[in-house]
Amino acid sequence: MRQLSAVAAVGLVLACPVWVWWAVGQLDADFDDLDYYMRPPELPPGLEPALGISGMTVAVVCAVVLVAATALEWFDWRWWQVIGPLVLAGIGTGYGWRILTAGGIGANIGAGFVMLFGVPALFATLVWALVRSFLLVRQARSRRS
Q1: What are the angstrom distances between the C-alpha of 138 and each of 26, 86, 130, 134?
Q2: Which sequence spans correspond to the domains of the chain?
């Protein structure tokens, strides 16, 4: 069950930015000649909703598996201290990507805010998750010894 929980945790963390990116949708202004901070990728028709629906499905299934495994005590609840911040970072990344690729007239002030506040927050969250996971692994090893 440990392997299934690990796969579910990774699936949840990786699927969240995809479904948020899809759910937010393109944030272009309603003008003809748009400026971009960063151009959005050119995707074939139908791929964006397929990615979004797949990402949402994977996230929901993985979350259900992790919650059930936690309730049945097959999954150590302390790992939610790593998964939770990574999921929040993924949500911010999906939304931030839509802001960075939004077409507008003139300066994209939202992109500046994403770069000024979002990137450091993402970095801090990743450092938190890395340190907390290191401490959890070290704690588990010391209990086995």
Answers
A1: 43, 20, 12, 6
A2: 2-24+31-144
